[in-house]
Amino acid sequence: MNKWMVTAAGLLFLTTGVHVFLGGPEIHLPIQESELAPPVRAVGAVLWHAVSVILLVFGGVCAWLARNPNPPLAWTMVAVQLGFVALFIGYGRTLLGNLTVMPQWIIFTLISAVIAMGVRTDKVKVSGVATA
Q1: pLDDT in tens, 78-131
Q2: How many CB atoms lie within 10 A of CB 91?
Q3: Residue spans per domain, the chain
Q4: What is the distance between the alpha carbons of residues 60 and 76, in angstroms, rounded to a whole number?
């Protein structure tokens, strides 16, 4: 069992919980209670819940990867996480002028690193070299 992938799965499930239970009341509910046009609120709701689904599925993928090494899938996961990092840093800097209002880039950077370590561990195991 790849402990790095188990850790990545745990971080993704934790991130899902933070997204739903902390972000929901702070971000999603105010958007839904706003005077924005109904189609804008509907799209906001779909996107909010889509992120919830994505985070849950990604947690499941990492849990699966813990027992079923698949480097292309794992690197795809890293690429998506790094895409999230770029979005949070880019919009944080350009629209908010700082990286502290939306610090989500930190957890997605960590998840990327943990998945990459999982790929490295699987590669070392396949090559026959013992891992720590």
Answers
A1: 999 999 999 999 999 999 999 999 999 999 999 999 999 999 998 766 555 544
A2: 13
A3: 3-124
A4: 14
